[in-house]
Design brief:
single chain, 208 residues, alpha/beta, Rossmann fold, two-stranded antiparallel sheet, 6 helices, 31% helix, 33% strand, globular, binds uracil, PRTase-like
Length: 208
């Protein structure tokens, strides 16, 4: 599986700011979006382009345009919404396919309570966004859902990933690509990433 830990200085600097205790909602939210934009830049390096003939200011010109297959961004509720503005800054025409999952108390498996995918999923590159790749339970269920809808090219963008989650997603879906600003040390007994960011959803939305 392709796993890219994006070590760009701007990303590392911004992620460092996000790790501070007592960070404000405003600052965390802004930084989540900015790091998401930088991850998007990295994750879209392989988009194919085609030549287009245009009238330039000084005469006819050949320029590049992104080819055929378009992107759909897939924020996982709730925290994934925090990365959406940054991704849309770079891909403003992208369709957004929102998914929401919660754990079934009986089976402990994530089940979808919300799924609103855009059309022609089989022609699109899906870019899942979620700040934390922890146990990967939600991610695996989301990829299952996207594949069932016909999606064949799937990328996941995360602010922080845990080694345990990366192992699980690699075993379940080795064909997807992961872009993360950091691969941290481990999960704690509550499923939180250490050193991590704490509860990313609470920090983005200002809840507790
Ligand atoms: N979700 C979070 O918000 N933080 C973690 O560390 C793990 C899952």
């Amino acid at each position: 599986m392709k796993i890219v830990e994006v070590r760009h200085p701007l990303i590392q600097h911004k992620l460092g700011l996000m790790r501070r205790a007592g960070i404000s909602t405003k600052e965390f939210r802004e930084l989540a979006s900015e790091v998401a934009a930088l991850l998007t830049y990295e994750a879209t390096q392989d988009l194919e382009t085609v030549e287009e003939h245009i009238d330039g200011w000084a005469g006819p010109l050949v320029v590049q345009r992104i080819k055929g297959a378009k992107v759909t961004i897939v924020p996982i509720l709730r925290a994934g919404i925090g990365m959406l503005p940054g991704v849309l800054d770079l891909i403003p025409a992208a369709k957004v396919s929102v998914v929401g999952l919660q754990r079934d108390e009986q089976t402990l498996k994530p089940i979808a309570y919300y799924e609103k995918l855009t059309g022609r999923m089989d022609e699109r590159i899906a870019m899942i966004v979620d700040p934390m790749l922890a146990t990967a339970g939600t991610l695996i269920a989301t990829v299952d859902m996207l594949k069932a809808a016909g999606c064949r090219r799937i990328k996941g963008l995360f602010l922080v990933a845990a080694p345990e989650g990366l192992k699980r997603i690699e075993a379940a879906h080795p064909d997807i690509e992961i872009y993360t600003a950091a691969i941290d040390e481990r999960l704690n007994e509550h499923g939180y990433i250490l050193p991590g960011l704490g509860d990313a959803g609470d920090k983005i939305f200002g809840t507790k």
